[in-house]
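Shift notes (night). Ran 2-oxo-hepta-3-ene-1,7-dioic acid hydratase while the centrifuge was going.
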Amino acid sequence: MITEEERRAAADALLKAEIERKPIIQPSKTFPNLELEDAYRIQALWAQARVAKGARIVGHKIGLTSRAMQMASKMTEPDYGCILDDALYNDGAQIRADLFIKPRLEVELAFVMGEDLVGPGTRIYDVMRATEFVVPALEIIDYRTEVPRAITDTIADNAAFGAIVVGGRIIRPMDIDVRWVGATLSKNGIIEESGVSAAIMGHPAAGIAWLVNKLHAVGGGLKKGQIVLAGSFTRPVDIVKGDVIQADYGPVGSIGVSFV
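Came back to this:
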């Protein structure tokens, strides 16, 4: 464990990296005793500072939802971060590439909560019952630290969240089988990745149930109207200025976005 003063120093360093678009040395190297509890506290301090500057927390993201990514990170469960309103874009947006350090894109589904949801003991059917809408989404991930990163570095860095883009059809959760939403991700007209939503822990709502129970342990939960990114079902694709992205979700629509 590290001290609260050291946690604040790490959060301040991540804020500076975000503003200056320059990665910092990994917090796990600066503070060798950094543990998971410290990392989530650093993330919370970073979020508090962003809110103090005018941002608003509008939801949460879940990462490391695939077994392969968990094994690579030496984790046995996902991680999570928060979504801020100034990093929320709509289909067709032109996004400044220089807002990020080294952005990458992932294909996901976003759940919009229709009611509050708290743990403990939350299960998939509780998530589906509490969800008002499911929409296609892209997550832009970004690193504010140098690599390679320990899992504590990723968590402290808001689980690598950069931005979210939503679009496509607005679906009620029981209108389709949300396990079998397929998508292709194209960059500049070439399909780079494809996947199906069942790759997210067997069911996209499984990670959200996990999140609700984790948030309960720290006195939190999900609120009506919040957005939750359920996790990626493709590998991340690098993006740079000039790239045009199209994510095709078949019957549930598509998302197009360009980077300028």
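The mean pLDDT is 95. Residues 133 and 172 are 5 Å apart (CA to CA).
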